[in-house]
Amino acid sequence: MKAARVLPSGAGTPLVPPLVQSVAFDYGSMDEQDAIFANEKPGWVYGRYGTPTTAALEVALAELDEVEDAVCFVSGMAAIATLFGVTVAAGGRIVAQEDTYGATRAMLERFAVDQRSLVHVGRRADHPADLGMEIREGLAQHLHVAGRRP
């Protein structure tokens, strides 16, 4: 239904921006959509890559925190993957509890192998002091070391 895609304009400006709940956006041509996918033109192509609502939230959070930018994610796994990637790229180590969520554990294992990063998985992550002891004493499981030392 194309008629329901656009709301009629009114005489006032809303105090709160409207929520865009769509995850797909139509541009009428594949060339235009391809240009947006390639970041040659501004726009939205799919909710996983951002929406006007997410962009407005990022601007509001950056303003609130008085920082240049803020980043929001549409899923917890996207946030976790970004956190792991930034941590590993900066040469940091990742410490996780042994019984972490299955998809997170699989991602940790991929980071350990593919990124040649140091990942610790401890049995006692619910008690930070005990986990620290496990790491110091070599009791935490190293998923992959690949030439790096703790």
Structure write-up:
The protein folds into two domains: 14-65, no CATH class; 76-142, no CATH class. Helix content is 39%, strand content 7%. The chain has five helices and three strands; from the N terminus they run H-H-H-E-H-E-H-E. It has helices spanning 30-37, 52-65, 76-89, 102-114, 128-136, and strands at residues 94-97, 119-122, 141-142. Helix 4 links the parallel strand 1 and strand 2. Helix 3 (76-89) packs parallel to helix 4 (102-114). It is elongated. The N and C termini lie far apart (58 Å).
Strand content: 5-15%
Reported for the largest beta sheet, the result is:
3 strands, mixed
List the secondary-structure elements in sequence, H or E. Answer: HHHEHEHE
Structural class, by secondary structure, is: mainly alpha
- Helix fraction by DSSP (H/I, runs of at least 4): 25-40%
Instruction: Give the uncertain stretches in residue-range form.
Output: 139-150
- Count of helical stretches: 5
Q: Taking Cα atoms only, what radius of gyration do you get, to the nearest Å?
A: 22 Å
Q: How many angstroms does the end-to-end distance come to?
A: 58 Å
Number of beta strands = 3
Mean pLDDT over all positions: 76
Kindly give the count of domains: 2
Structural shape? elongated
The strands making up the biggest β-sheet line up spatially as 1-2-3
Give a concise summary.
The chain has 150 residues and is mostly helical.
